[in-house]
Amino acid sequence: MKELPTFKYNPNAERLGILKKEKTTCPVCGQDRNYVYQGPFYCIDEVEGICPWCIKDGSAAKKYDGEFQDAAPLK
Ligand SMILES: [Zn+2]
After folding, report:
1. Of 18, 31, 43, 72, which residue is the least packed, with the fewest Cβ within 10 Å?
2. What does 1-30 look like in DSSP terms, one character per residue?
3. Model pLDDT for residues 19-69, shown as the tens digit of each residue
């Protein structure tokens, strides 16, 4: 298990509730993760369980062609 990615502009993402410690199988990378991204995601409705790593590297937004409301502070 990798360490949580560090979000340069939002180092307290977990404390702020953007990341939640919860088991998931990320629909983007297909990996089992222990953290879930909890922030808003505007694209299709039923996307859940995206891991913070896919948020961090942009692959979640790319896959779903969506936007994260707080994408800026999470880069
Ligand atoms: Zn992922």
Report:
1. 72
2. -PPPPP-TT-TTTTTTTSEEEEEEE-TTT-
3. 888 999 999 999 999 999 887 665 555 678 999 999 889 898 888 876 665
Cα–ligand 1 centroid distance for 42 (angstroms) = 17
Is 27 among the domain residues?
yes
Ligand 1 center from residue 59 Cα (angstroms): 8
Position 70 in a domain: yes
Residue 43 belongs to some domain of the structure: yes
**How many domains is the chain built from?**
1
Ligand 1 center from residue 36 Cα (angstroms) = 9
